[in-house]
Amino acid sequence: MTRNFENEPMMEVYIFETTQNLEQLEQVIICSEKNGGFTPDDVSEIFRFMHTIKGSSAMMLFDNIEKVAHVVEDIFYFIREQKPDGLDFSAVSDLVLECVDFIKAEVKKIADLSDADGDPVFLIEQLNTFLDELRNIFGAESNQNKNQKKQQQYYIPQEKKQDLPSTEDWLAQESGMASEGACYHVIVHYDDDCKMENIRAYTLVFGLAEMVEEVYYLPADIADNPQTASYIRENGFEIFFKTEISYEEIKAHFENIIYIDQLLFREIEDHRLDAFRNTPKEAPSIDNFALPDRDLCMPASSPANVIVTEDPQKNNTTATQKMISVNVDKLDNLMNLVGELMITESMVTQCPEVEAIQSENFHKASIELHKITVELQDMVMSIRMVPLSTTFVKMNRIVRDMCKKLNREVVLDLYGEETEVDKNIIEHISDPLMHIIRNAIDHGIESEAERLAKGKDKAGHIVLEAKNVGSDVLIVIKDDGRGLNKERILEKARQNDLLTKPEAEMSDRDIFKLILLPGFSTKENITEFSGRGVGMDVVTKNLDEVGGTVLVDSEVDHGTTITLKIPLTLAIVEGMNIRVGKSRYTIPITTISESFRPDQKDCMMDPDNNEMVMIRGQCYPILRLHQHYQIKNAETDLTKGILIMVEQEEKVICVFADELLGQQQVVVKALPNYVNSMKKILGLAGCTLLPDGSISLIMDISGLTGLRVQ
Amino acid sequence: MKRILIVEDDLSSRKFLFKFMSRFGDCDLVVDGLEAIDAYLLAGQEGSPYDLICLDVMMPKIDGIQVLKTIRDLEQQNGITEKERSKIIMTTVLGETQTVQAAFDYGCNAYASKPIDIAKLTEVLGKIGFYEEPL
Questions:
Q1: Do B74 and A61 touch (CB under 8 A)?
Q2: Cβ contact (<8 Å) for B105 and A158?
Q3: What is the pLDDT of residues A132-190, one digit of tens each?
Q4: Where are the beta strands (DSSP E) in A470-544?
Q5: For chain A, which domains are there?
Q6: Domains parsed from chain B with CATH numbers
Q7: What angle do CA A461, A517, A413 make, to 5 degrees?
Q8: Has the ipTM of the complex gone over 0.85?
Q9: Among the partner residues B37, B76, B96, nearest to A199 by beta-carbon distance
Q10: Residues A17, A110: contact at Cβ < 8 Å?
């Protein structure tokens, strides 16, 4: 079955809400476990979450999810009602978390447009056994409240006011009039917020038509004209009718109608109906109660009222929404548009003809324009910023699960989780963080006995910290475990043939970095959590995608620190524009250490015929861009062009270009698909438009440094 | 024989629903909200109210949500118990959450997004207790 979510916001809402509920639920359970038990608040909160999930899943026809949620709800209902002492909290938590995982997996399937077909029977059996055990030990709960709850499963019942309005006061004084063919005039006022007064009036007349001989009403066009609803709200609905039925019966009929606020009931003379009778009727059907007199149609009310009164329902719905969730694609588009706007803005204001304009007003306006575009850009960026807290908090669960399985005690401390990063980046770092933390617990933190022998705290500590440093975000994962063993890493690397350069040349950091390579694991035994050598390479892979870097530091017996350095945003880069021949390139300013024009004597060739330049006694490789990208008519004399020394991941290279054009903020655009599909070009991160309308290619420095080394 | 009311202004949808629903019972067809209310009231007077009402939302004169509300109000007014009430399924292309929420708030039994998934609709008909034995 195919589902198109664009046409099914309900599905989107379901996935969104359920995911959120599950996450919150998980947090509540982990928190309460930390505190050593469920507080009554926790229990009812968990109950509520499960109830919501159950209800919405039933509504969306995901039976398996509903069933699981239902049993969990039962368990928590039991706990809430019976308040059992000495309950095995960790067993409950385990069970519930298992269910949460199951539901998460199912929701994932739904989100991926496949059917939620996971079989919950095993889980449900397990839960039911557990519940039965509880009942055996603590006695069965009363089912009274619960059955009531069950009624809500398939749909949300109406919320209605039950109080029927008292009509007694408004009844006319005459009583017991069983006159033949008596005429009545009734004015009905509906409850203020009952809505659709015209349709209510219509159904009222429909019912009345059976009991009376003649009936006329004001306003007449209630069925066809929704505007009459507000008229009735203001002025009431007037009915004139003649009937043989006794006053009591008629009265009872009206009293029975709901939503009536006021009822004005009086007997009138027969001739009062003549006004209506005289008008010709096209067809005497019940649909056609025509109203003869225009004056009667609109008595004493300004028609303005009709227009002014708005549907109160509309106001309600808009007032309650202060937060909205937005499709990320739309934000991406917005970001793109703002990028285009910025480029266009600089194209306009920096155009030479425009600069020649002597009007002071024009320059004021263009400064204002610039200010607003920059503000707009900041605003769009801030919309895309999401705090890291959700990602960080997820780690609690991983730590908990691993501690249980490995029988270790580890405390996870979170700092700076309010740090905000771009939404795209969040998606990319969640997996790496998970793998790093798993590794830290599995490999880093020693067993309890070992720790005590080393004079460390019984419980291991992992610190997860985020902070802003310049235009980067640093995420530091620090454990106080045994640290990395250089010898073993090297040995393993030799075995797996992962060494890329002579061991003697490798710095400590180079060695530690080997652990991030795919297929690398020093652990002999493969466990559920680590040892397969898959995982840590995800760290480098994902960080590469967002332009981040990984640093590994370690000290034997003191622990390991892994630092992820991530740019705050991918969309806008402070860059240095350079020219090579007629081509323009942009180098991210953060990677540039210096630029200089070398002396002939400093330039040399190494034995492999690679060009090098000597600066302050150090040799650096030179990369000639015109050679690399085969650009004609470019400067080839090193002493006449300019060398730009760039550094990324501690690799340094000197890029040779014709000249520097100047520093500028550029909006990064991905290379168009037709370029990417032709061939993979190394050393380019994207492209941008310069104010003069020309295209500049943005250099990917880490790609470049790699190029020259190879 | 169960009585079914199909409220639908679009001819092809109406025919489709009629063909599908005919195996469950006797189908009446109306084309707008006003007719729906008329039909509902008439059936009430005849003493054989509809067991199931399929309601479109976007219709001329009175829209499906209003019809839904009217019917539910009338049922409440006439003291019809929750169990005896007509089952109402909204059938519409409108998928906005506000519309769906409104329909649920007003007490429809199910909300089917068009194009209608027959398998699911059948399943739901069973769930809301419209028929007991699978056909």
A1: no
A2: yes
A3: 887 777 666 555 444 433 333 233 222 333 333 333 333 333 333 434 567 778 888 87
A4: 472-479
A5: 5-150 (1.20.120.160), 168-278+287-298 (3.30.70.1110), 328-386 (1.10.287), 388-567 (3.30.565.10), 572-709 (2.40.50.180)
A6: 2-126 (3.40.50.2300)
A7: 15
A8: no
A9: B37
A10: no
